[in-house]
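FIELD: query
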Amino acid sequence: MSAIIPQHSVSVREDRKMANSFVRGNKLWIDYYVDGIRQRKATGLDDTKENRTLVKKTIIPKLMTMIATGEIHQNKPKTFGYYFDIFLKLKDGNKAYFKKIHQWNKVNERFKDVDINRITRLDVKRYILDLPIKSVSKGAYKHALKEIFELALDDETIKTNPAVNIKLPADGTKKVDYFTKEEVNLLISNATSIMRPYLMLAFNTGMRPEEILGLQLGDIGDGWIDIKRVRTCGRIDHPKTRNSIRRIPCPQFVIDELNAMQKDHIFLFGNNNDVSRLHSRWWNLLKRCDMERRKLYSTRHTFATIMLQDSIVSINELAGLLGHSTPKITLSYYASVIDSKTIDLGKNFDLFDTIRSQSKIRKL
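FIELD: result
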């Protein structure tokens, strides 16, 4: 006959304010009430004489104090806004803070005063899907929600994270906005002041605007440029990913143009610490060249497109030049500009040397 494991406990007093210990599976548990609701919690301690004394004289009195002071209060669950404030404090100093704070605040506006344990997965899904933006832009909102609910999960306020495993519909393929070679030459010919070296660098390297504005003279070498930092929103930061820290080739005529710039500032492009400071010059240049408005970021798309269309580099090589973490990201942007009709393999293309091999193989 197997041994019988004792299950002993002390009955709870009628006023439901006393906490008691009991044994379950050779472990000590505590049975107590908070606001009239019965709670049972494992201590993790083995059922020994010493541990029973510890629970009775130390753990239970501390628990009673926490209940009396309201530190444990079943009827007042914490709101989404409570965990949002913690989320912001943890994000303070993060390089993405100033870029994403407006998105995070929108999330908080929606759920701020709602008890976080009452927010369902359907609530979160409806909010994300109803945002009037493309799916690719909804990722920041979904990720913030996931992190905030994770804090509540760590605090044991909720049992599951309602923001996980929410699938977003795929966006339609967006046409890459780029300039032709003729348009590039027209723009550079009409560019003045810092816009000329900026555009020469942007069109010939595919660098991001914030990477260009973060350049210092020491980052330029003989036929190459080291990308070490970015400047955006008035801040100096590390590049967005580990792959973004890279050395890229740069034509000598572009380097000569950069070396000819005034050296009265630690950064090549002076006090222009955010791409928005170049917008008015950019719009005016497009107008002078009789071109429709396009983002300054289109210079990067132009570099990538010409590289692929002229078969100068492969997708893998282009990913390295652009600082993408994987070639898959590069392909997702530029697959549409690769024209399979331009690929000429010849009419006698024979990948496996089948014709010659078949003539040598004896038929069975």
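FIELD: remark
Residues 49-68 form the longest helix (20 residues).
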